[in-house]
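> Could you send the F-box domain-containing protein prediction when you get a chance?

Sure thing. Input:
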Amino acid sequence: MGTVSQIPQSAIGPNLVQAQPRSKGLLALPTEILLLIMKELEWDDILNLRMTCKTLHEPSRSKDVWTELLRRYVQYSMPTPLILPRSLSQCSSDVIENIVLKSQTELVIPSSIVASHSFNIPDTSVTTIHLVPGGRWLLAGCTDGSVWYYDLDLSSSTNVGSSTQAGRPHLLLETPLSAQQASENQASVFISIDYTSELVNASKNPYKVLESFNLAVAVTLMPAGIRSATHSFHVWRVDVVTNTSDKGEPTGIKALQRLSFYKDTACVINDISIHGIHLAYCLGYPPGTTVIVDWCSVNEQAATSDSALARWYLESTAGSVSYVLKLLVAGV
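Output:
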């Protein structure tokens, strides 16, 4: 019997390439099948697959995969309504993945989907900040009583330098103080927002995009040498401004209507909270005392004594002022 000798490499020729070994198992499946499989997995399984090889890395970042996980989790383990930074169709895969991961675990989110932010501070000092649900708008209250906002989408490190608006504060509410008051005093500013009232009669869709909310701002002014403070309370309706030429993409927020304004006196205010027609604020003295006011009924009023405004007092309350206000509204 004759034998077949091995063909030397030199005889193959320069234009012929040896066949590469074919992928086997999971890696041999088409992308469409891989996506279907990943949609049935849990979030940690997908992250583990991502770290195995380049072939599985790309489908593990698919928007379809993470949208399916979001839809599944929102039915069982996520609070509803879920406030998104923009409509679901406008959210990127990284944004949806970030929402899912933050809702399911306390793990350290991979740096690839965490945005660090760089801000320019307004001319006056910032005393308080408040993140609007949805995670895009950051409010900043200043010592002159003004309120500014930042667009965190423009401030993310991945976009810095790509927009002249990146990290820049935008004026939402001008200072209510006169030039002399602002120069002689540093005001304390407290911020609270109510977005749940706007969603009570909304559709049953579990995904919500915040289109408007009520903003309560308390500005405390205590002139030098005077022991009592004057607190001015402002309630504004704030709307999200959209770009009609870019599929309704949000471009900013704007305070279009002041719903209520009144003044009250107290020694110290530690916190405020707004829900529906009620505005609550905690007093530093007497300690543990919460004052609740119907801000609709006291519009354009000024109180210098307890008889000048209709108030409810709750003493030695446990929990935060927002918790107390929710109990009152619920009739507990």
